Amino acid sequence: MDLEDIVRVTEEKMKKTLDILSKDLRAVRAGLASPGMLDKITADYYGTQTQISQMANIAVADPRTLTIQPWDKTAIAAVEKAILKSDLGITPANDGAVIRLVVPQLTAERRQEIVKSVKKRAEEARVSLRNIRRDGLEEIKKTEKEKLCSEDEAKKNQDRVQKLTDKYIKDVDSALETKEKEIIAV
Q1: Which superfamily is assigned to 3-27+107-184 in CATH?
Q2: Whole-angstrom Cα distance, residue 170 to residue 18?
Q3: Secondary structure of the chain: what % helix, strand, coil (to 5)?
Q4: What are the two backbone dihedrals, phi and then psi, of residue 88, each rounded to the nearest 5 degrees?
Q5: So where are the chain's domains?
Q6: Predicted confidence (pLDDT) per residue in 136-183, tens digit
Q7: Phi and psi for 62 in degrees, rounded to 5?
Q8: Each residue of 60-114: pLDDT tens digit?
Q9: In degrees, to the nearest 5, what angle opens at C-alpha 57 toward C-alphas 183 and 91?
Q10: How far is it, in rounded angstroms, from Cα 98 to Cα 108?
């Protein structure tokens, strides 16, 4: 693998890490209804665990209410059961055709717990980015040791990997700050 490939693969891994964090943060409940809250919840659908978003129409009725309308009416009970089992902490209301999720107002204490959880996820993403950086730098050093590149080329690409790391860590910090403001806002 040449130096360009090493840097490209390193950047792809960092981008995936940021994408995973963004997806995780979208699923965090911030007191407002969001279809992303249901991303990790699966229901038993004809013997297969299926994401709710793949078996129902999910809509935001108002800032605090989600409506879930399964395409197959027989799946309503399974969806309701999956929501109850999940860690959402919301009791669904079922009228036979549509399931309504009313997101309760968060207490200040609960908001602080959520912020702490979000900060932990952001720190895990930063650690992951640093590990990816370490692996990329090791690959560059290995390439240099095998005399496949000059010392200057290796140094230049190590700097590129460090700049990528700085950029993605800044992106993680930015995503964290945005989510924190969203959670704290009443």
Answers
A1: Ribosome-recycling factor (1.10.132.20)
A2: 11
A3: 65, 15, 25
A4: -65, -35
A5: 3-27+107-184, 35-102
A6: 999 999 988 888 888 888 899 999 999 999 999 999 999 999 988 888
A7: -155, 175
A8: 888 888 898 988 888 888 888 888 888 777 888 888 888 888 887 778 887 888 8
A9: 55
A10: 31
DSSP H helical segments within 86-150, as ranges?
108-145
Does domain 35-102 sit in CATH 3.30.1360.40?
Answer: yes
What SS3 state is found at 31? coil
Tokens 């700050």 -> residue: 177
Closest CA to 37 of 90, 96, 93: 90
C-alpha to C-alpha distance for 135 and 7, rounded to whole angstroms: 11
162 vs 7: CA distance, rounded Å: 10
**Tokens representing residue 11 in the block:** 């950047």
Phi, psi torsion values for 95, nearest 5 degrees: -110, 15
